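On clarity, I found the account of how folds are encoded harder to follow than it need be. Since the whole study asks how a given chain folds, the encoding of that fold should be made plain. For illustration, here is how one protein appears when written out as sequence plus structure tokens:

:::
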Amino acid sequence: MIQDFDKYYNYLFEDDLLNEIKQKGIYKSFKEDSIIIEIGDFIKSMPLLIKGAIKILREDENGDELVLYYLEKGDTCAMTLSCCMGETKSKIRAVAENDVELLLVPKENMNAWLSKYTSWQSFILLSYHNRMNELIDAIDTIAFLKMDERLFKYLKDKAMVTHNDVITTTHKKIADDLHTSRVVISRILKKLENDHKIKLNRNSIKVLEL
């Protein structure tokens, strides 16, 4: 676990901060599809992702979900920082896209390191910047792209964040993530296959164009 942490964060932080993170951080692992952060939770720590990918979702009043963005190795969810510092409840749900390993940085250390380490400041600001761009991208996708374009982008994003062009999933799960119906997804997937952009298999999809 320490080797994986060094691999993805060593170039970001100075040695003293790296040592503090290893001492103060709490190691956690989650199986695929496990809920890591639930909507309404009070968040007392910030995750530093070491292995796997995390899907960040919003939920409407009817309980329907929409994928906002993904986190991968070397990322954190900047929303957790704002929730910690503001002592507010989480407005997102974080779900393990595959098996996940992470270090949880306690709230008190997060705040202290902002004034103590410039590399931590830079990391947090860059995380905010990246997540904001991803949120804008998600809004643009919903507002301006047709469903077939949204679906293909969703598949490419999923393949890229998991570093695997074969996606194990179901049409129902994709429909839930994109806030549409399974029938619509099945129809568009068949069209994408006919266009030689994907290859459909039983409970998996191979992305041919990345």
